[in-house]
Amino acid sequence: MTTAPIEQRRILTTAIPGPRSELLQKRKLSAVSAGVGTGLPIYVERAGGGIVVDVDGNQLIDFGSGIAVTTVGNAAPSVVAAVQAQVEDFTHTCFMVTPYEEYVAVCEQLNALTPGEGEKRSALFNSGSEAVENAVKIARSFTGRSAVVAFDHAYHGRTNLTMALTAKNMPYKQGFGPFAGEIYRVPMAYPYRWPTGVDRCADEAFDAFVSAVHTQVGERNTAAVIIEPIQGEGGFIVPPAGYLKRIADWCTQHGILFIADEIQTGFCRTGDWFACEHEDVVPDLITTAKGIAGGLPLAAVTGRADVMDSVHGGGLGGTYGGNPVACAAALGAIETMRAEDLCGRAREIEALFMPRLRELAEKFDVIGDLRGRGAMLALELVSGSGDKTPNSALTSAVNGYCHSQGLVTLTAGTFGNVIRFLPPLSAGDDLLHEGLDIVEQAFAANA
Ligand code: PLZ
C-alpha cells in the first residue's frame, strides 16, 4: 500500500500524455466502448491535496475535482479511514432488506444541513441522475400531477427521464430518443446572453417562465419546476439575484414543487453548504450527489417531510442505494467539511481566483464573461471586440494548452465555449496560483 503523502508540486516528467498512459489509452480503445469519452487521457495512479499523479510519474494540478466530486480532496484522510473501517465490517446488505445506522446517519446530516427549518426526510441513491429521477417520482406522487418544467442550458443527467430534462443535444441526447414525456422547457435567466441586456434579464426571464408555464403547460398540471441554482454543465450560468426566489415563491403559490438540483453546487462548493442559501431559497426538494461522499458513489433526495413521506412504502429504493461504504465515506467527508470550514475555504478560493481572472478578462477581449461563486468559477470565450459569438475553437485550444502543461481543466457550456474551474478545496494557495499562471500562459499563447 502506498501511504507517503503526495508532494504538493507540479512535476512533468514526460509529454502529456506520457508513454504509459498512451499504452493504456490504446488498450482502452480496444476494450471500452467508444461511446465513453476521456477528456485528458493521462491514466491516474494516485491523487490527493491538489495533485493528480499519473502512471508516467507526472504530477498535474487539479482544477476539476473529477467534475466537482472530490471537494474534500482525493483520498481525503477522513474518507479513507471511514471507508476502511466500514469495508472490514460489512460491504452490503441492502438497506431495503436489513438496514444499518450509516444510512440513517447520512439522512440525518442531510436533513440538518440543507436549507429550511421544517421537518425533513431523505432517501439515498447511487448517482445524480438517479436522485433527479426520484425527485420527479416523489413530486408526481405528492402532487398527483405529471408535468415537469426545466430550463434552457439545464443538465440533470443521462438516464431516459434525465436526458429529457437535460437541454443539450450533443453529446448527451443525440440518437438516444424517444425521451420521457411531460417535460417542458422554458428560457433561463442567462444575464450575459439575455437579448435585451443584463438589466432586463431578471424581469423578462421571470415573465417568460410564468407565461410559458401558464399558456403551454397549465399550473394545475405542473408537478415540479427543477433548476440548478448555478447551472453546471450548461456553463456555470448564475441567474440574477432574486430570480430563484421569485420562481420558488411563484411555485408555492401554485402548489408546484420547487426542486433545486444541487448535485454540482452542493456541499461547500459555492461557499455555502448549498447554493440556494445564498439566495435565501428553501426548496421543497433538493438533489445532491458528487461532493457528498469524497468520490464514492452516493446521491440523495432531501425535502419536506410531508412530501417525502407521501410516497407509498416500498415505492423508493434500489439494490445499492445508500451503500454502507458510500455512507461511511459521506459521514467522513461531511465531518471534514465542518471541521475544516470548507465553505470558508471555497470563499477564500474565490477571493484568490477572482482578481486574477478579472485581470485576465481585462487583458483578453475574447473573454466575454467571468462568473461563478466560491470554487465554481468560469470564463466564457467569444470572438471578441464586442462580438459575443461563442468561441469553442479557442476554448479547446486553451483547455488543451492547460492539459499539456500539467493542469487539469474542464470545459462546459451549451456552445462548448466555457472554461470552468472546480479545484478541490484541499488544494493549497501555491498550487492554485501556479494553475492560474498556466491559464494566463494559455491565453497568451492562443488568444
Ligand atoms: N445534475 C447538476 O451536474 C452531473 C456529468 C458529466 P450523475 N454532472 C456531470 C457527464 O458528462 O456525464 C450532474 C449535474 C447536475 C445531475 C447530474 C447527474 O449526475 O452522477 O452524473 O448521474
Portion of residues within helices: 25-40%
Task: Encode the helix/strand succession as letters.
Answer: HEEEHHHEHEHEHEHEHEEHHHEEEHEEEH
Rg? 22 Å
Helix count, per DSSP?
A: 14
**Bound ions, cofactors and other small molecules, one mention each:** ligand PLZ
Strand arrangement, largest sheet? 4-10-9-8-7-5-6
Low-confidence parts lasting 5 or more residues at pLDDT below 50? none
Q: Largest sheet, described in full?
A: 7 strands, mixed
Structural category? alpha/beta
Overall mean confidence score, pLDDT: 98
Question: Terminal Cα separation, in Å?
Answer: 45 Å
Strand content: 15-25%
Shape: globular
Number of strands: 16
Structure characterization notes:
The mean pLDDT is 98. The chain is an alpha/beta fold. It is built from 14 helices and 16 strands. The protein has helices spanning 19-31, 65-68, 77-89, 101-113, 128-143, 160-165, 198-217, 243-253, 275-278, 305-308, 324-339, 342-363, 392-404, 429-446, and strands spanning 44-48, 51-54, 59-62, 120-125, 147-151, 183-186, 222-227, 257-261, 285-288, 299-304, 367-373, 376-384, 387-390, 407-408, 410-412, 418-421. Strand 2 and strand 3 form a beta hairpin. The chain binds ligand PLZ. Residues 67, 127-129, 132, 155-158, 228, 232-233, 261, 263-264, 289 line the site of ligand PLZ.
Task: Give the key terms.
single chain, alpha/beta, seven-stranded mixed beta sheet, binds ligand PLZ, five-stranded antiparallel beta sheet, 447 residues
